[in-house]
Amino acid sequence: MPPRGKVGLREIAKAAHVSIATASRVMNGNGRVDPKIQKVVLAEARKLGVTPSQQFKSRTLAFLLSNRAMLHAFHSRILSGAEAHCAARGWDMVFLSYHYSPHTPWNELHLPRVIARRDLIRGVILAGTNSTNLLELLLHKGITFSLLGNNVMGEQARIEKCDVVYADDIQGGFDATQHLLRLGHRSIWFVGNDRLPWFARFLQGYRRAMLESGLTPRESTVDSDKDTECGFLGTKSLLARGEEVTAIVAGNDEVAGGVYKALRDRGLSIPQDVAVVGCDDTVGMWLFPALSTTREFPEQLGKSLVEAVLRRIETPDQDPQSITVPTEFIRRDSCGRPPQVLEELTQDAMHGSPI
Amino acid sequence: MPPRGKVGLREIAKAAHVSIATASRVMNGNGRVDPKIQKVVLAEARKLGVTPSQQFKSRTLAFLLSNRAMLHAFHSRILSGAEAHCAARGWDMVFLSYHYSPHTPWNELHLPRVIARRDLIRGVILAGTNSTNLLELLLHKGITFSLLGNNVMGEQARIEKCDVVYADDIQGGFDATQHLLRLGHRSIWFVGNDRLPWFARFLQGYRRAMLESGLTPRESTVDSDKDTECGFLGTKSLLARGEEVTAIVAGNDEVAGGVYKALRDRGLSIPQDVAVVGCDDTVGMWLFPALSTTREFPEQLGKSLVEAVLRRIETPDQDPQSITVPTEFIRRDSCGRPPQVLEELTQDAMHGSPI
DNA sequence: TGACTGTTGTGAAAATTTTCTTTAGCTTTA
DNA sequence: TAAAGCTAAAGAAAATTTTCACAACAGTCA
Fold it and tell me: Would you say residue B127 has pLDDT above 70?
């Protein structure tokens, strides 16, 4: 149906039997519009051959990093990937960080002003650590967004109504632990801080792997928000208690850095005495010996987040999407067989290929 | 003069004897307007108590990272410091990255849309690698900004007309080299890439220190934009040529990481065989042995950049400011006395306190 | 030199967004 | 239980931005 002449809000409004103001509100994602009316307007617009993205002047997304000090290389790379994909699709992107409490009711949260100005920002990407009150607010204001699902606190039901992208770090924790188990380790400890949500999923994977092998998950958790400190203290206290340990699963690479320091302090060598794995592949390659860790493809996460929000802008009434980006375990030099297994191997004069 | 009733574009246009459209163009910075008329409109607007940015009283700064992949921990920390200081002063901040060629004439550069909108962004902080054409453009458009001076290409004269903040990395390079000289090193090499502007100033400090001690600066430079690779290859080729070397000044911490790898490959130990220093204090603490490096107080730089631009917003007609933030040399475990000196010390049975 | 062409800069008008008002459906309260 | 008060949602009106058309000017080519 080739529309003759210009097709503007006036025509759409007429076709949908609403005012121009309402048509404007629907097409640029502004203000609150009854979902029913929204649907009608979009349908009419489509009939006239107008999709939202053609309509808009501002092709800019906002990347909102919530409740983070933003120093983390991991998030920096997500942003980087998002930016690259934006550029490739002809969109701009601004980044801002935002701090809020998960306990503030949604209607008392005050969004950064730029986000609220919707003539500029067409969609938002939520990364960092979020909670459902912010989701509520954005939903309420009718702001289009996609969400990094890994660190969200609150009811799962609410989250599932959004477009969510996950890094599969549960599987990552599982794979990392599996690797250690295959090498013959049995005394495998988790070091991190289970109070912080970004360790929780990795820890969950660790637990599953341990339980599936009939072992008890054992955690040395320190409530500090400095990752390195957390790893250092967690390991120290574990060694001080005289626990048996041949391998350590660190909550992330920075934690692993602290673990390294503590082991070295005790004169233990890596990987001969203790094997270590990390998560996130941030500083792992700088450690010595180079850390075996879990790569999470942060650039890919960024790309998926952009894709999700652009898809939502194009077709506002589709069902919520959920995307999971896989992880990869990277073998470097921080894992070997545990001492006992090595001895047995030598005694039996076996020559199986090293795992 | 308190204007009665609303003051909008209609009133401003009337006072300046132009059309509303022109007033709009001036006030939001879109479209081309004759500078004379622009001036008249702004003057009338001010008389009516409306400055372009106050109109919507947006208190937002933009942090523009130019021509960088943004992964660098160093810039991430500048941003972090800027953000914190903004928040403390009640301002918002958005971050965006921007790529442009130093060779594009200023009037052909196209700024990110958000920046151009004065109703949103009252000031800009320029970090990353910049060139004078962008400064020209901002100056022309009348956009307030402050500038991180360390990586700017172009005439010094133009730069000095802006509010500039420097990290004193020339001094940093000098101090780092001094430290090695005091330890007794004489065969000190610089490893980096002298084509990249962010190594240039540190290198300059190194050179000065060498020359002042009557030594010839010696550089092994590799034209790669991957820092680690640059350090690795630079060191490898230097060793392959059989050059005498007891200490290496690496262009930054990532480069030092590559240097470590190359030394280790050759079976040389740090600091016994070769001393290494880095710059920027990014990954230095993760290396083993921990890297002695130069701290540049990036958070402080961010804070100073914000202060500079806010000062300029407050008092637009003050003289250009130039601020230099000092650096600090951090001693960790990567530097010792050179082998010959140690021998002498032992032979002479001296017991001077270690430097 | 004069016609042609392209570039600016402007106001008028059209399009769009935002604000203001009204209405209808709830909830609260006396 | 009815009046008062609230809130969401939509239209009307105002404000603002963008498009369009046109004039003024500069350069170019026959």
Answer: yes
